[in-house]
Amino acid sequence: MSSSIQPEEKKPFPWHLIVFLGPGLLIYVTFSVYPLLDTLILSLYQEQSGESYFVGLENFVTLVTDENWSSAFWNALSNNFQFFAFHMLLQNPIGLILAVLLSSPKLRLAGTYRTLIFMPTMLSVVIIGFVWQLILSPIWGISEEFLYNIGLGQFFDAWLGKEGSALVTLSFISVWQFVGIPMMLIYATLLNIPDDIIDASTVDGANAFQTFLYIKLPLILPTIAMVSILTFVANFNAFELIYAVKGALAGPNFSTDLLGTFFYRTFFGFQLQQGSSTMGAAVATLMFLIILVGVMLFLFFVQRRIQRFQF
Amino acid sequence: MRLTQSFLSNISVRNVSKSTTVHAVLLAYTVIALFPILIVIVNSFKDRKGIFRDPLALPTSDTFSMVGFEQVLLRSDFGLFAWNSIIVTVLAVGLVLLLGAMAAWALTEYRFRTNLLITFLFAMGIMIPIRLGTVSILRLMVELNLVNTLTSLVLVYIAQGLPLAVYILSEFVRTIPKELVEAARCDAVSEYRIFFSIILPLLKPAMATVAVFTMIPIWNDLWFPLILAPSEETRTITLGVQQFVGQYVTNWTSVLAALTMAIVPVLILYTIFSRQLIRGLTSGAVK
């Protein structure tokens, strides 16, 4: 926006504005904004034999209290929080360590490491899911043999097939794939830290670890916060990995069900249960609210508190 | 003198061992990152016996076999799936770039009443996933008679890609000196020519970054092809592979070949464009 205030004068109708902004805005509003708002409204309706009628919050009450729905919903929600917690505990710390190592001064081959470690992030989640399904498969036995070779053979199990370990295993796969994102973003921030700040701390007698803890870490906190919110949104919207590896039923016994797969099943139906677009809309609305709350918390607390560290 | 010397050599020894540790850790993680992918690619060139007898071995003259690839090409229309993916991705990315650049220019350059509202609307789209509107998108596509067409995918992907494109390109438009545009206006150059002959060429480097960021999620997406265009003729490569692997899950040679055919083109493209992508990621364009 131009900041200088121009004198008001009668201008011809700004056709160029319509030409520039119109097409993009039209497509964005029609296929993104409108469907989202329509979904929020649809969640307040129910449909029976083609007629739809307003039911207020009934769909939501059904979702969180009805015995046919609520256990599946709470299960998916709690799994989703575990999935997210795993990413926060593993993906970001590993990404941070890799970024710090990559940014060590005069490191040879840094570009090669960076390119290669980022590679899995580029591939489709579906493909990665299948690849790991093969690698972990007891039929093929690659991981079993590997564990025997390093003396941990007795710990091998069909992790993806067991109720207790399937979600954790899928979280590991997802972390493995996306560790490149925190690594890359934190690495970029580390490179941008001015050398004289680091030099000053060295002159003051700080060792490498102190320099990291007191100089670098505060400066990369905003990036870590941003990575966290990106991870949050991506995790609460995840679908492909579970669908590819475990199918829409998110087995065994729904132990890998996330909100994304729950949404898909609710909308399209599965086994004996018929799909329902209004219930699907209700699930999508709850997902929207969860993501919105997460983003708001990020904007209002994290972003504001770390602002003073920004350079 | 001797003291200084021993001190210095001490430091360099410490530095060497430190840099060895750094290399060891990074190398180990690189192996972790690449091993699963490589093992799939290597085994796709082996026969069934070779795959199971020694998964870690490279294909030998005894175990080398392309039977998996033959089966995949015979049983599914991989060429068509790849072609569909290319059409959808190229059209969507091209339109995101053009419409995104025009919108970014309009929102940054011109003052009008709804400017802030529209900017906010686009900004919301960066964080709120378009998937949440799927129920209504599907209804809309049914009404528009666009189900099972590539057009439906292109439209949705444009809507998905625009917010980030507008955001990044707006940041770049702000760095263009005002004098450039003012001078052109003084010469009575039309607003359209200002944009297409002055601004658009200047946006090229930023547009390359946006292109990469827009392309990856579109190419890799399973959700919208699965819901909007699952028919055999409109299947994209990601959906095609998913359906194929789901169907022939016990046929190891085919599954490995199908995965390899999906992985290798992306890896080649990535190797070519990785510098561009990494520069985009590290230039702060997505801060």
Which key phrases capture this entry?
heterodimer; A: 311 residues; mainly alpha; MetI-like fold; two-stranded antiparallel ribbon; 13 helices; 68% helix; globular; B: 287 residues
Structure description:
The complex is a heterodimer of chains A (311) and B (287). Chain A is mostly helical and 311 residues long. Helices cover 68% and strands 4% of the residues of chain A. Chain A has one domain: MetI-like (MetI-like fold, Orthogonal Bundle). Chain A is built from 13 helices and four strands. Chain A has a two-stranded antiparallel sheet. Chain B has 287 residues and is mostly helical. Helix content of chain B is 78%, strand content 0%. Chain B contains 13 helices and no strands. Chain B has helices at 2-43, 48-53, 67-75, 78-109, 115-127, 134-143, 150-174, 178-186, 191-202, 204-220, 223-228, 237-247, 252-282. In chain B, helix 3 (67-75) crosses helix 13. The radius of gyration of chain B is 25 Å and the shape is globular. The two termini of chain B are 50 Å apart. Classes of the chains: A mainly alpha (311), B mainly alpha (287). At the A-B interface, helix 1, helix 3, helix 4, helix 5 and helix 8 of A face helix 1, helix 4, helix 5, helix 6 and helix 7 of B.
Tell me the domain tally of chain A. 1
* Total beta-strand segments of chain A: 4
Could you name the ranges of chain B where pLDDT drops below 50 across 5 or more consecutive residues? Answer: none
The amount of beta strand of chain A, in percent, is under 5%
Q: Going across the major beta sheet of chain A, what is the strand order?
A: 1-2
Overall mean pLDDT of chain A: 87
Radius of gyration of chain A: 25 Å
* Strand residue percentage of chain B: under 5%
Principal-axes geometry of chain A comes out as globular
What's the CATH topology name of chain A? MetI-like fold
Tell me which CATH architecture of chain A applies here: Orthogonal Bundle
Give the helices and strands of chain B as they follow along the chain. HHHHHHHHHHHHH
Just give the CATH class of chain A.
Answer: Mainly Alpha
Largest interface: A-B, 86 and 92 residues
First-residue to last-residue Cα separation of chain A: 24 Å
Distance between the termini of chain B: 50 Å
CATH class of the domain at 83-235 in chain B: Mainly Alpha
Instruction: Give the helix level of chain B as a range of percent.
Output: over 70%
Largest sheet of chain B: none
Membrane topology (chain B): Multi-pass membrane protein
Subcellular location (chain B): Cell membrane
Main location (chain B): membrane
Organism (chain B): Marinomonas balearica
